[in-house]
Fold each of these.
Amino acid sequence: MNISRILFLTIALVIFVVLPVQAKDMVVKEPPKSLNKYYPPESDQPKWIQQMHKMSTHFGGVFVNLKEKDFANVDIHADKLVEEYKKTSEMVPEWEEYFDIPAAEAFAAAAKTHDIAKAGKASGGLGKTCGKCHAEQEVSVWAKYHWPSFHKIKVIDPINEKEVEFDDYMGSISSSFKGVTVNFGEGQYDRAAKALKTFKSRYMELKSTCSKCHATQDVKRFYVGPDADTAFAGLAKELNAEKPNPGKFWKNVGLLGKTGCKHCHLVHRTNSFIQEMWEK
């Protein structure tokens, strides 16, 4: 079997055993509080994820250098992997069961034979420990420590100029939106036009709110950008027409919903739900 074939099979094995996450394995529960000290604000650096990157780099470094026949660096990465693995195993006491030191040492020993097939086979035991932890903890860690919390954001409502919680503000946007669609459906076009002004004012205020995290101009207007401008202009045109066209009206409602509301919710809402449950 040639070296390329061996490498391909090894990489496939590594991916399979390190990331064996299936629906039945996935768990979403709040991480232990002992992990807090490895993330801001308790830590000035996200030390836990930095440890993950260190181990991943050394694990990958073994196979990169085996392929390149750079055996000196194979040995360095193998030793460093065991060193970082042991260090990581002591960081969160509640997660001690996820670590198998003998498996890490066995992998390092196999890597030092400089036989890529042996290293690939030995990676299985180590990969299972990583995969189990990822299946049970990775989503939770990312939700808690890597996604900003919407529940800490305050918004000035442009209609009443009062400061409100972000969740309450989103409720106001939803109510304003319904004022537009319900009145239009009833043929109350003047009321719908009035509600549209309120809805647009609140919706476009998100440009300022989103910029708390979305700092650059392009990203800032990702959800509240040209498509939103086009949709609002189309809605206003129909509501000011002598005889509004329902097809065009609802088309612009769909444009606003799909390119703005839905896209934002797809990216952010799941993590927001998870965080909210933990905060309660």
Amino acid sequence: MKKLVAEFIGTLWLVLGGCGSAVLAAGYPELGIGFVGVSLAFGLTVVTMAYAIGHISGCHLNPAVSIGLWIGGRFDKKELIPYIIAQVLGAIGGAGILYLIASGKSGFELNGFAANGYGEHSPDGYSMLAALITEVVMTFAFLIIILGATHSKAPKGFAGLAIGLGLTLIHLISIPVTNTSVNPARSTSQAVFVGDWATGQLWLFWVAPIIGAVLAGVVYKYISPEE
């Protein structure tokens, strides 16, 4: 239960920090943080929580990460479903707090919140195929980074930095395509509030990250030195 509470809190922070930066700070006139700021915000949520709860739950904060670690032989199958439930609930909790804050501004409109999308709902109009490829490849790379940085033979104490910076880079590449998911819980949290098209397109942001994570788990298990 302590692990699940940690995952709930960590994923809540990821959504509040990452999506919150996009909703509250990215579009602020002249002083807005833009794509670079949002990318850093997502990375910083992972860095901070890696050192805060990594020793408690492993700091997955992401169903795709839990699945990739399981496939890679780093995570117990019996904990997989409870972790995913805690992550999704934490993400929705973070989105709920963000909604309460954002709606406190006069003239607030929900619009797309920080939802992920493709086609007309892609930030720069990218197709469903482009979105699918992007999410698979970016999640694959993310899991390779995680599996490598947390390997017993990797330099000690730097995993959180490598993983957080990896997520920052992923956002720098892919925000224009899908608004960057690589995390089904993060995508679900926004779709719950936006509804409509966001829930209709949510399937891609579960399927693609899971495919990428599974592929990474298989590949890294093959190429990595023995623990």
Amino acid sequence: MLKVVGEDFVKRYRLQQSLEALERVRGRISEQSYERLKALVEYRLFGKEFDRTPIDEKIVVAFSAGSDSTATVKILRWAGFEVVPVMVKLPQIREPVLLNAESYGAVFVEIPNYMEVMSEQIEKGAPICGKCHSMIMEAVKDYAKRRGIKIVASGDLLSVGSISIYLEGDVVKLNLPAFLAMDKREAISVLGRKYALGFGCSLWESAARKSPILKKFAIQRVLRELRAGAIDEEIARKLIFDILKK
């Protein structure tokens, strides 16, 4: 499921940062969850096996059925957590994706004013991905808070471990791939199957046709992820070519 990072200095440093960040939220989660998350990091660092029997702790995962959020669900379940994948049912999500999400036991929620906000962004020629992501995370956190679930996880690929787990309002936000110093290729490998790389959704494609400048912003985002080590050159090249042809 997970590979040991070995002598990779950068990833080892990031994992040490994750352990420090975990200490800062220790009193906000159950001790059992703290120990299990710590064991996950130590497994990545040293290959140290740990007890993976189920524990009485639910974790909500912001679920898109993409590689990063799917890897997050699989890893947390492998580690013994009770995972609740929560997918925001957006207009642009195709039926096969919804069916795939159902196979992971996803719960579906909605954002009532989603298209109003997105249409306003598109009309202004403004980037929509960041706004979309923030609205999705708010809806997922709201679901967790209403059910008393303390941990909300995402598949965000960040370049540092220091902000991979932190308190955000009433919940603890866990960016699991960053917490485990994972990159895109490692996330895909967790799926155990082929994964088709592509950038954006049908809503983004429609917005980019109307405002081609959005392609430039998208390429800048890919290059930021490349510089951060979240993706490698081969993946970056595929994503950039996919952006340009839309």
